[in-house]
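Researcher: If convenient, please comment on what follows.
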Amino acid sequence: MFTGIIEETGRVVAFRPEADAWRLEVAAERIVEGLALGDSVAVDGCCLTVVERADRHVAFDVLEETRRCTHFPGLRPGALVNLERSLSMAGRIGGHFVTGHVDGVGMIEALEPRGRDRYLRVAGPPGGGRHLVPKGSIAIDGISLTLAEVSGDTFAVWLIPHTVASTNVRERGEGDAVNLEFDLLGKYVEKLLGRNSAS
């Protein structure tokens, strides 16, 4: 479980196929402190398990299913990725509950300055709009954000300068793919209501 508050950005060192899975290696600073093999880390909002750890480097195994459900096939060495260690129950929850299970990939339609803030509009996957509620939560590449506009499967959020400076948004642009995780509570409510209406 995560909060969607990004701890730092790391750089992809390598992403290559190996015998049993793809191996993703990331250069990082803060998250490696106290990190152990088997720990969970959200990489651009996708929960991955640490399989290797060295000084300022961490590696993960990535399955084909994970590649299929995320924007990871487009990752290249040097790409900036958002990193967050799993939630400590002794800490504060500053964002919202994020599982690290990506629901689909969206496409950036607009990312532009408006005054001192930035406006980000994303076209989500078909049918994803049923999970979108104005003023509700969404995780974009693992970043906990508040929905400002919703139109079908397309939505927009506002980004404060801190979010831009602290995440990979600063290197994103129109046409880029992003990992999306819709609000967990909303998905459960939809499932329960659907079950009740079917009975």
Notes: The chain has two domains: 8-85, 104-198. The chain has a mean pLDDT of 92. The first strand starts at residue 8 and ends at 17. The helical segments are 64-69, 161-166, 184-198.
